[in-house]
Amino acid sequence: MRRLAFALALASSSLVIAASGLAGCQSTERADAPPSAAEAAAEAAAAADATAEPDVDSGVDPRDQYTLAHAIASARSAVEDREGALARTRSAWIGRRYRWEMAFVPALCGAAGSCVVMPFDHQRDPEHPIRQGWLPQLELSDDERGALREACEGKARCVLELSGTLSQFELSSTRPTSLKLSGVQLHGSRAATPSESWVLSVRPPAARAEPRTPDPRAEERVRASIVAGLG
Question: How confident is the model at residue 112 (pLDDT cuts 50, 70, 90)?
Fold first, then answer.
């Protein structure tokens, strides 16, 4: 009887050990399971944003506003954890200094009140139109406002090269995207070329059709509607 009891106890112990080992293997397999395609894409985009290094000499982040627009679009398209993707995108961009070309519209930057600029040349890549309406707000002194207006005198459509720190960045699924650039510096100005469209998003031309030229009258109507909205 003693031998039988010992054998039964030994068999029970072996079963417990085997069951524990099997559970451990299953737990390890679940922990090591590859992430979903959406999670992998979001993590890759966040990693790419986070690894962008400022220019050593100027301290300016080399990414432009078009890269930011694509990052926002990618985060908004996340199927899983969209708020998390938006938060990671915001974290990867806020607090850094950028140097961008943007269009200056006098009616959008008066002597007082908000001063915003048009960030996108919609003809830059007409095959991939930007469907975002955010306008960077510039934090300026009265003298700096005057300097921008002076730099654009005599230019029907003026493009400014500005640098600034992204000090405020609202990015969520419930509120409109908004940006503010602080410590703004003017580096140059030029007249917009006929092939550029800083106000309108022009559809890509049909096959074998002549490229469309932006309609100045249509742009004026868009400017007027923007001014009315800001008022």
Answer: confident
